[in-house]
Specification:
- It is a single chain.
- This protein is an alpha+beta fold.
- The protein is about 60% helix and about 15% strand.
- It has a domain of about 40 residues.
């Protein structure tokens, strides 16, 4: 039941957040690079259960700079 609620929240959040896989596709990078960016403070993901979610505004701004 808790997993179902989490899934629902992640689905709702998708309108505001990118998943790790979506960020990988946007920048053509690996998951390891995303973790390096997180560790360096370049991106600030939100943790939802075991998933990392990335604010669309932050990622879009980063994509515009690159």
């Amino acid at each position: 039941m808790a997993d179902e609620r989490l899934s629902e929240r992640v689905e709702v959040a998708r309108g505001r957040y990118y998943t790790t896989e979506e960020v990988m596709a946007i920048f053509h990078i690996t998951k390891r690079t995303i973790y390096r960016w997180r560790d360096a403070g370049k991106v600030n993901p939100v943790k939802a259960g075991r998933r990392l979610l990335f604010d669309r505004t932050e990622i879009d701004a980063l994509a515009d700079r690159d």
